[in-house]
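Input for the complex:
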Amino acid sequence: QKEVEQDPGPLSVPEGAIVSLNCTYSNSAFQYFMWYRQYSRKGPELLMYTYSSGNKEDGRFTAQVDKSSKYISLFIRDSQPSDSATYLCAMKRSNDYKLSFGAGTTVTVRA
Amino acid sequence: EAGVAQSPRYKIIEKRQSVAFWCNPISGHATLYWYQQILGQGPKLLIQFQNNGVVDDSQLPKDRFSAERLKGVDSTLKIQPAKLEDSAVYLCASSFSGGVNTEAFFGQGTRLTVV
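Predicted:
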């Protein structure tokens, strides 16, 4: 069993729709949870960063962490064609630098 | 602020050949990472440097992979000899420090194809 599971998709939605992405994990020691966006042929860039359980909102993006269920989510409201990318979840333990990534979900927003 | 620079962007080699990748981190970033991203998978950490010292190389296949970071700035990653399964994107990242709350910035990567 992989440490971090993420449905690779692909996911195709019309412009303006809500995009819902999620990851599950098996290691209860993970405390820091991140979402990265990776455009084609580019490196990942940090989108959202959350510590422990709870919600975090930044513009059209909302990250949720449910540590009791070992489940994290990313929601993109009013999606735009420019949101078309691969979204990677990542997480790490306290006092640890090593990121454990999911496989990434490829999202296409149709104009 | 200039980002993480990597070269070359693309490389095609035959199996059993050797190849080297170069990375120039963001100025002032003490921590440098090399990740391997196989198609359809998330990045996997190969090695982490703090200045010019190795912090973690537990997932580096040391029989064929080597990396160095001379003078605590630029870094090179070498594969010798290459295998077909080494085909991947090799990402370099850097951060100001190796702390838990420190964001890592990624370069565009080097796409390696081994034929």
